[in-house]
Amino acid sequence: MAEAESSCSDSRWSLKGATALVTGGTLGIGYAIVEELAGMGATVHTCARTESKLNDRLRDWNAKGFDVRGSVCDVSDRAQREQLIEKVSSGFNGKLNILINNVGTNFSKPTIGYTVADFSTLIATNIESAYHLSQLAHPLLKASGAGSIVFISSVAGVVSTGTGSIYAATKAAMNQITKSLACEWAKDNIRSNCVAPFCIRTPLIEHVIFFLSCS
Ligand SMILES: NC(=O)c1ccc[n+]([C@@H]2O[C@H](COP(=O)([O-])OP(=O)(O)OC[C@H]3O[C@@H](n4cnc5c(N)ncnc54)[C@H](OP(=O)(O)O)[C@@H]3O)[C@@H](O)[C@H]2O)c1
């Protein structure tokens, strides 16, 4: 009985043979997600803007025996998103099981202090990227026969946390997009879920962590 339980549990939690794209995998939450997926046997593609950091991470992961590939991409740029998915498609033979829309950024200001450029940057980085990457990845996720999208949102998309009204709006939009895709793409065997963390000690919030009194 113990043996049966153990083998059932092993196969349930293995991602051997699965493919995944994790945006922003060189630091913070994205880094932890890459490690977890690769540790469970998935082949992972990740991206970030800083080439030197990406190369360091890829070297470390490969030394651990993980199958992690990567490419430089600024996900706030439409053309670069298209190039990213082309790379993923050719590397994974047109099939993707898991898309983790992790990249997000923030700069907190009073609402009347935000500029047009601030608005565009936060919308492009946090929500347009995730929406467009999901659109681009749809045929690959469908072709896998078992697709899954995970959006990394925030509690700031549900309640007011004082982190900035634009950031909060992008995360609230993400929560609703998750629901829309979950219903629209279920017929294609693509699940859509959202994780909404509170404070996680990462470079993104290191400078405000004492102010927020959380860790
Ligand atoms: N940390 C928290 O407490 C917290 C709480 C709630 C939600 N979240 C959410 O969790 C997600 C990850 O946050 P984090 O704290 O792990 O962030 P982080 O520590 O700042 O790491 C961000 C990662 O994304 C990459 N990145 C940033 N902008 C990018 C862009 N335009 N294109 C491509 N890659 C980009 C970064 O590398 P490069 O800089 O080299 O591009 C890095 O690998 C975000 O969506 C954030 O909103 C975080």
Strand neighbour order, sheet with most strands: 3-2-1-4-5-6
Task: Note the main sheet.
Answer: 6 strands, parallel
Briefly note the structural class of the backbone. Answer: alpha/beta
Distinct ligands, ions and cofactors found in the model: NADP nicotinamide-adenine-dinucleotide phosphate
Task: Report the β-strand fraction as a percent range.
Answer: 5-15%
Q: H/E element string?
A: HEHEHEHEHEHEH
CATH topology: Rossmann fold
Mean pLDDT, all residues: 93
Which percent range fits the helix content? 40-55%
Give the termini distance in whole angstroms.
41 Å
CATH class reads Alpha Beta
Number of strands: 6
For the structure shown, list the relevant keywords.
disordered N terminus; TR; oxidoreductase activity; alpha/beta; 215 residues; oxidoreductase; NAD(P)-bd_dom_sf; binds NADP nicotinamide-adenine-dinucleotide phosphate; 7 helices; Rossmann fold; Sc_DH/Rdtase_CS; 6-stranded parallel sheet
Write the layout of secondary structure elements.
Blueprint: H1 2-12, E1 19-23, H2 28-39, E2 43-48, H3 51-63, E3 68-72, H4 78-91, E4 98-101, H5 116-144, E5 147-152, H6 165-184, E6 190-195, H7 209-212
Parallel strand pairs: 1-2, 1-4, 2-3, 4-5, 5-6
Helix pairs in contact: 4-5, 5-6
This protein binds NADP nicotinamide-adenine-dinucleotide phosphate (NAP).
NADP nicotinamide-adenine-dinucleotide phosphate is lined by residues 23-30, 47-50, 53, 73-76, 102-105, 125, 152, 154, 197, 199-200, 202-205.
